[in-house]
Specification:
single chain
Length: about 90
Amino acid sequence: MVADSEFAGFRFPPEVIVLAVRWYLRYGLSYRDVEELLSERGIDVDHVTIYRWVQRFTPGSSRPAAPRRRVIVHRVCWLSCRVQASR
């Protein structure tokens, strides 16, 4: 669990933040789904706030991999090379 000092200055208690982040990561819910679940429990929080919590409190290894540039490898066509070499 995250230390209490990391939650200093937040409007919501650490238990709510940890619960929202856990639901999002564990069950693959959307931010709006987590917002709705919390709303059903009497906690009014915006989906953008949940997004910010996930970005801040998720360890780097648990985050989905960021898209990376693809390295394009040029393939050598052996057939065309043989045809050109024989000419």
